[in-house]
Each structure stands twice: as C-alpha cells, then as structure tokens.
Amino acid sequence: MPILKSHRKMNPFLLKRKVFTESKALLDELLEVQHFRTIYNIFVAVFCIFVLRAVLVDFIDTGRVALDFEVIVFAFGRLHMTLLPWLVMFLYTLLVPYQVLHIWVNLLKTLQLPALLTIIATVVLLIGHATVLAFYPVYTLMSQPFGPASCCIITLEQLRFLMKSYSFLRETVPPILQSRSNDGEMHLPQFSTYLYFLFCPTLIYRENYPRTPCVRWRYVIENFAKFLMCLFYGSMLFKCFTIPIFSNMNKQPLTFRSFVLIVFSATLAALYLAILIWYTFFHCWLNAFAEMMCFADRTFYKDWWNATSTSAYLRSWNVVVHDWLYCYIYHDLLWVFKLKAQSMAVLSTFIVSGAFHEYVFMMSFGFFYPLLFICWFIVIATEILGMPSTNILLWIRILFGLALLFSMQSLEWYARIHCPVQKNTFWTRVTPRTWSCYS
What we know:
By secondary structure, the chain is mainly alpha-helical.
C-alpha cells in the first residue's frame, strides 16, 4: 500500500506502465536443461502412444492403416467462412480508429471546442465498435453453423480487435490532450506503428518495441509444426476420453455416483487438454508470430506451475491478457477511486476476466453454462478470505476445477444432442439441459 499512496496525486497515465524488454520464451530456456527436457519428452511419448492406439484400432476395425481426422474436421467446420468476418473486423479496426483519431487531432488544431469534438469522436467510435466488433460477429456466429473451433477463432479475434483498438486509443489520446493543454505539438502516431501493433503478439500499444535483428524461419516452421501436431493430439484426447464416455450418457440416468465417477475419471484428460491448449497457443502460436514480427519480448507466460496461490497462477498463465486487465481495468479503477478501493479494483478485474472467458465458452459451444464464472467467484472468495495455500493445494484445486469444467461442458454438449429442441431461442441457449435430459 505505500507504493499505491505515493501515486495518489499522479496522473493515471503515469502509473506503473508495462515495460517491454527483450526476453526469451521461458519454456525455450527450460528445455535447455536436460531434466526438464525429459519431462517434455514424456509428453511427446504419450502423444506417440495416442497416435499408435488410433492406428492399431483403425487397423483392427477396418484392416487398413488410416489416421482419423474426423474430430478436427468437425471442430473446424466452415473454417474458410471465418475469413470474411475476420477481414471485416480487421479492416474496421485498422482504418476507423486511426482515421477518427487523425480527424479529431486536425480539428483540435483549428477549432476551440475540444470537449464537443471529443464527445462526437467517442460516440462515432462507440457506434462503430458496437456494430462491427460486437453485433456483427455475434450475428455471424448465430446465423451460420460453424464448428466449435471456428466459433472460438471468430470470438477470440473479436475480443483481440476490441482490446487492441482500446489500448491504441487509451495510450494515444491522453498524451495528445496533455500536449494541447500545454500548448505543445500534438503528436499523431504513424500508421505503420499501428499496423505493426495489430499483428504483434501483445495487447498493449507502444510506438516502439524491442526487436530482434532477423527472423529465424526454422524456429517459425518448428513452432507451426508443433501447433499442428498439438491439434491432432487434442483430437486424440477427445476421441479417447470424451466421445466414448459422454456420447452414450443417454442410455442410463445420471446419478450422483455416476457423476462423481465421471468427474474424477476426467481429471487426467482435462489436465492434458489444459496443458495442451496452453502450450499450443501461448508457446507455439505466439512465439511463431513473435519471431515473424521480430518481436523480442517473449514473456507470454511465466512459471505458473510453481504458483502457490490462485491469483499468482492466473497472473502467470496468460501474461498477455493479464497485462491488459492490469493496465486498463485495475489501474484505471484505482485512479478513479483515488487508490482507496483496491479490493473493489481487484474484484472488478476478476469479474471482467471471468466474463471474457465465459463469453468465449458461450460463443464457441453455442450455450451458456456459467460454471467457469462460478469457479471465478470461488477463486475471488478464497483470495478475499486469505485462505492458506501451497503449491500442492493449488494443484488439487486446479485438477478438480479442470475435471469439473471438462465433465460439465461435455455433459451439456451431448445433452443438447440427445435432447434437442424444435427451435433454438435465447432461453434454450441459456437454460442448462444436462439434468433434465439425463434424469
């Protein structure tokens, strides 16, 4: 708290800012240690066993060797159709915020109505964002039968463009207003820096980032190859653990005993899937793009596996989103309430983060099942109460939470297949069907 009090009279935009420094990906550093690489090799060996199992089962059943990509094809259904909504959102984010900012700055130089001009520019951007980055992608997902992964791509890109455009305006508008009040020159960022920001793997806008001298194309190809292999690995997990168990749930009633057995038997699959998602996106995908963009700060995650509290785990699992929430939700709320409501700022940040994650789940799977949001409030309660925690206790909570989330989402997915409704409405999408279907 002494640090917070020292900032009481400071401008909110001068509070602690994200500093980008050249750094290597943590997992790349750890894999240089033989002991850690052995653990990594174990995961690769398990992947090989899954592939071998799929090959042997196909050979026994059909008499020929064939890898089944049915899960991937279903998950990425209508993937080619995601290009249109992505292109619309990208072109809007690329052109409209920058052009509105450019016009606003030029009018500020000639007119003497800064408040009115700012209000008009804000209203224009709010209407544009609500139409193109909010309503349009939701309408697209609701009106076309995309696969779950394709829906997830559109939803994540929607949130990415929203967060990036907000960061760009949030970082550029205050210095312009400050320069005008001091009768200084109002500096407008170059369009090339904004274009670079839209593609580089960060949600925090800066005019300059640490850069690497060249692109290691072998590193890029390796990470994209690992990304594709992880997709196939994930399909094997679903084929071995999810489909055989949950696709036949309609043949017997769901009792408390069977539910407990399902949750605990799903622990290993849920853990593998969570680690796989983290490795696929936060290491392979982001590092590949960072290398292509010569983006030198590779701190996309920290050592979340060593965390001893849930808050530390959430801060280190996804550093990219955490930095955005920390800079634009937590810090801004501290400034608005004069640094007197730190607990409220923390609570609000958790709620916004939980809402983001729940929104991604809802749009990806096509139904609202707020189990993740409930888990979020449990996390908040444990943090507020200051319950003691160790790394072992944290891992027990993580394993149980992942297994519960994995099981409940799978049950609800198949419940909607086994007990369909004649017409999908708002209420059918937000009303859970698990317990009524399997009773």
